[in-house]
Design goal:
The protein is mainly alpha-helical and 59 residues long. It has a domain of 27 residues. It is built from four helices and no strands. The longest helix is centred in the middle third of the chain and has 12 residues. The protein is elongated.
């Protein structure tokens, strides 16, 4: 029987979709302190969708 090879980490395509935004929201809901520089990176990568989530859980 052939064993299934483990998949590598999250690909860039998967990061640039709803899954990535879901991860951001989970971090904010958990109350993680995220620096402004990192939040800016999220906005740069995901645009207005990330901005909306960040504003919803304003730090």
């Amino acid at each position: 029987m052939k064993s299934k090879k483990p998949l590598p980490g999250v690909s860039r395509d998967k990061r640039i979709d709803a899954e990535g935004l879901k991860r951001l929201e989970q971090q904010l809901v958990a109350g993680r302190r995220i620096s402004q520089a990192v939040l800016d990176q999220w906005v740069k990568r995901y645009g207005d969708s990330a901005k909306t989530i960040i504003e919803k859980y304003a730090q």
